[in-house]
Amino acid sequence: MNAMDQSDILDGTQWVTDGGLETDLLFNHGIDLPEFASFPLLDDTDGRAALMRYFAEYAAIAAAAGSGLILETPTWRANPDWATLLGYDATALDRVNRDAVGLVRSAADRSGVEHVRLSGVVGPRGDGYIAAGANADAAAEYHSAQVRSFAEAGVDLVHAMTMTESAEAIGVVRAARAAGVPVAVSFTVETDGRLPDGSTLAGAVDELEASAPADWYGVNCAHPTHVLPAIDGGSWTDRLRFFRPNASTMSHEELDAMEVLDPGDVDLLVSSAADLRGQATLLSVIGGCCGTDSSHVAALWGVHAPNRKLPG
């Protein structure tokens, strides 16, 4: 696939993307994910099969909804710090990031969906809920290897998800520009609609627009009721395209302490997501994040959930 034609998203085309990969595999399917990382599954035959079944569920949703499909690589933890904890050196990490693109390409080929795009997922260097005081230059250098792996493997875009502060997001955008690949940035917010570093969502988007504009913006890993307070009617909301909500209304701190999955109230998820889309009217890439599975995403799209198959 060639680099994404940005008008595919900006012209109003609707796109299904996946749900809470790690929480779904861990809690619903009993698949062990050390360090909450899904990318090691690429090195295991059963793990790859589970990932392919997982992505097939979202292809079925896209087909039922008559929408496009964005397949995002299982690489949220596939950066050097987390990879080192899991025994991956730089060479192995490059290989597995490229392999992740190959896997979603295979899923795309099998999907039966006409319009499919491949997205290389970049996660935060540290914890997805804590702002550690990133430096934009250091972040660009840190994330550049993963972004280059994605670009050379042929992704249509890079998507930085669960960004907790603008500096790290700026670094990812700079890395993407250097690699010549389009880039989306999704921030996460706390229950009050502010980023973990205390900044507003509007302020974070404005900071990137002034320094290193992304092609698209979004929000992930937050319930719609947490995002709604951030929507102030400003023109910046027209830059929001991606939304991957959590199932639960719990705070990040509460979710971190949970030992069982909170699947949330699906009716509330759907109704509050509709309220959000009524205010951020150009949101067009809709999936899920922690606690969601294909049944939640199907509900967000108003279609029947696909049959879910356990690994094995």
From TrEMBL:
<dbReference type="GO" id="GO:0046872">
    <property type="term" value="F:metal ion binding"/>
</dbReference>
<dbReference type="GO" id="GO:0008168">
    <property type="term" value="F:methyltransferase activity"/>
</dbReference>
<feature type="binding site">
    <location>
        <position position="290"/>
    </location>
    <ligand>
        <name>Zn(2+)</name>
    </ligand>
</feature>
<protein>
    <submittedName>
        <fullName>Homocysteine S-methyltransferase</fullName>
    </submittedName>
</protein>
<keyword id="KW-0808">Transferase</keyword>
<dbReference type="GO" id="GO:0032259">
    <property type="term" value="P:methylation"/>
</dbReference>
<dbReference type="InterPro" id="IPR003726">
    <property type="entry name" value="HCY_dom"/>
</dbReference>
<feature type="domain" description="Hcy-binding">
    <location>
        <begin position="3"/>
        <end position="304"/>
    </location>
</feature>
<dbReference type="InterPro" id="IPR036589">
    <property type="entry name" value="HCY_dom_sf"/>
</dbReference>
<keyword id="KW-0862">Zinc</keyword>
<feature type="binding site">
    <location>
        <position position="221"/>
    </location>
    <ligand>
        <name>Zn(2+)</name>
    </ligand>
</feature>
<dbReference type="Pfam" id="PF02574">
    <property type="entry name" value="S-methyl_trans"/>
</dbReference>
<keyword id="KW-0489">Methyltransferase</keyword>
<feature type="binding site">
    <location>
        <position position="289"/>
    </location>
    <ligand>
        <name>Zn(2+)</name>
    </ligand>
</feature>
<keyword id="KW-0479">Metal-binding</keyword>
